Amino acid sequence: MARSPFTPSNPQRIAVVGGGPAAHRFVEAVLSAQDHHVTVEVFADEPHLPYDRVQLSKALPEHVDLTLGSGAIWADPRVTLRTGCKVREIDPGARSLRTDTGHSVEWDELVLATGSDAARLNIPGAHRAFVYRTLEDVAAVRAEVRRLRTALGRPPKAAVVGGGLLGLEAAGGLQELGAEATVVHSRQWLMNAQLDQGAGQALNALISQRGVALHMGERPSGITLDKKTNEIAAVEFAESAALAADMVVVSTGIRARDRLAYNCGITTAPRGGIVIDDACRTSAEHVWAIGEVASFDGECVGLVAPANAMAEIVADRLAGGSSRFDGFDTATKLKLSGVDVASFGDAYGEAEGCLEIVYADPARGLYQKIVTTSDARTLLGGVFVGDASPYQSLRPLLDRDLPAEPGQYLSAAGGEAPDSELPDDAELCSCNGVSFGDVRSAVACGVHEISELKTCTRAGTQCGSCVPMLKKTLDQELAKAGLEVSTALCEHFELSRPELFEAVRSLELDSWDAVLERFGTGLGCDICKPAVASILASQRAQYVLDAGRSGLQDTNDRALANMQRNGTYSVVPRMPGGEITPDKLIVLGEIAKKYGLYTKLTGALRITMLGARLEQLPEIWKDLVEAGFESGQAYGKALRNVKSCLGSTWCRYGVLDSVGMGIRLELRYRGLRSPHKFKMGVSGCARECAEARAKDVGVIATSDGWNLYVGGNGGATPVHGELLAQGLDDDTLVTYIDRYLMFYIRTAERMQRTARWQEELDGGIDRVRAVVVDDVLGIAPDLEASMARHVANYQDEWAATLEDPQRLARFRSFVNDAERDDSIRWMPERDQHRPATAEEIEAGLGVPEPVMVAGVSLPVGPPHGG
Rounded CA gap, 159 and 180, in Å? Predict the structure, then answer.
């Protein structure tokens, strides 16, 4: 880098107009440049220190400090920050600017980081709408929701115009405040700027399932005010009925704040923004532009990574460097209202001859697409909705050869990406331009904690999407060096799941807030919230959706049912050991007929009834509970079923009563929450008809007693269970299973099946045998007591739900309306019905209501006879 001509006695005077994230990054970069003698004066319109606009939605439910960094740079004697100070005009020829107070400032270099304003609607009544762009905007929206709740005595109806990133965040935040949110979007799918149609349809389904209503494919034509109260009454449309609303929030995009530049003759782009070259220079000498206001190749982009890159480039140029801006990295990874969304590279598959490898189940809210070159080798881009876990492994491989077949990265389809090490020059953190080599160098220099690594490299300090990969890389480097690897549950909890389990148990903590206050930091995430919910459920006999625990659960747990591909749910009553009476079989048939449900035997020897709408679940379960059924918990991380063969009761080969033992085990362990789902099987002889060795707990009868196998599972990577003990009587068998399950629940990591848990235990099955059978740790009585408490305090979740009107209120398709969802369409199939495909719906086929008429085809035609 060339030596700067400026000296401590004659520093370079830099003025920065704008006080957002780009300005913050620029000041950081300037101060860290070697041999760079500067004074920096920053003019910020807002009365705050620069804050993280990416996290703006966190400030909607309650005030949260979003200040960027520690604030140390503003205490630097070389820096002057003027908050609440607007620049009225600039004079590039005289190298001066004037503020709204008449103050004049001369500069050697000027950096325009003025950002953008929220776009507004140009329709009648638009002046009464709120926008969603600044902390002041957020505070105004929060105050309005609270005012309306008090005035109306009910949750206010909020219409959010715009289905992009900020619009969806606004809708989620309004929900948290207690409002009923509807997103109004001009296109047929959300986030259309980042997602293709398949991904957008999946996102539509997921957002709808979270209680946010959608009004798609139409722009508002006006906002109607009540003539008596002058309050907002509705949002009007040109071609459809008005949408009732008490408030309107507009988030339809951004407009670059380029007026200062335009007024002084600096070139601006036809679509807005200050035109820059690849050095971020404007058309005026000594004037630069960075961030959302900068237009490169005719485009302005409101993302963190390009803004940071521009800031770094200008700082480097002012210090005598020659770095260049290569263009916009539009990769996006975020979580909207608990929904994973990610896209990067050629997400639309526009490259000539490219291949698209897709797993799509839009109605269920799952969509994964990988775009490669025609030979399926070089990665060009990807889109993920519902499950964005492949993004972490794929994003650094953009424009590189994939180390495995593309399909292996489609986790929603059961793929498992190879655990390959990425090259040093691959980018780990796109927001801050941090490579894997940068992180490895920092670890080699002694930075061994994730928090220190983030501070040292700046990786993971902005959007945070790269933090899992950062931790994985840290663990790999520590392991290679023979050092201890951190087992922290996530960035919010330094304890591992087993450590947190024991800490919660020993302190008898009983809520998320208590656990977070005692052991965590921040607000939690989709990793730690379900994990803590599972820990609390394993230790306490409490209804899983009460006392704020609903927000910790996954989608299926919140509905107490498994969501299916068209947004309906399955109903799976428990059938212990696969045994059922004729009377109960008749009840199931009557219920399936009454509600028009598709029925099928599952692989676990249970009957599943498919196609129930959310609001139907309580009605169906009321009939089932009255008939003596209880929840089969096909939705939870808990015991799914105990499969058994006929055994000695009927089968001429049976050695022991496998049906009786299967029923005993299922009634004992039903409802037991664990790190992952688990299954059991009981076979009455060595012929193994119940496939017991493919289960987490498998029991096989012999002439000497029961043989107990543990750690088996089917799935994408099947594993045979290993023999733990043999020749057991009934009570000893149950005792060992009690100990085994509680040992697993206490010591496994989150989402870890018993097979993987056993593999990773030091000593494997021998260690399990030493603890469970030989009691080398002396904890067997404690493990047995824990299981005894579970058995004594078990309650059926659906029976408990039906007893409480407040719990029942959760079960409605629309958060603001008790009506059913008539958008679901069905097609006939083998005397029953199935969900209509997207192509069938588009062709006008399918019916809105399933009809169960044996031997007679369902009527098929346009919805509602149209």
Answer: 8
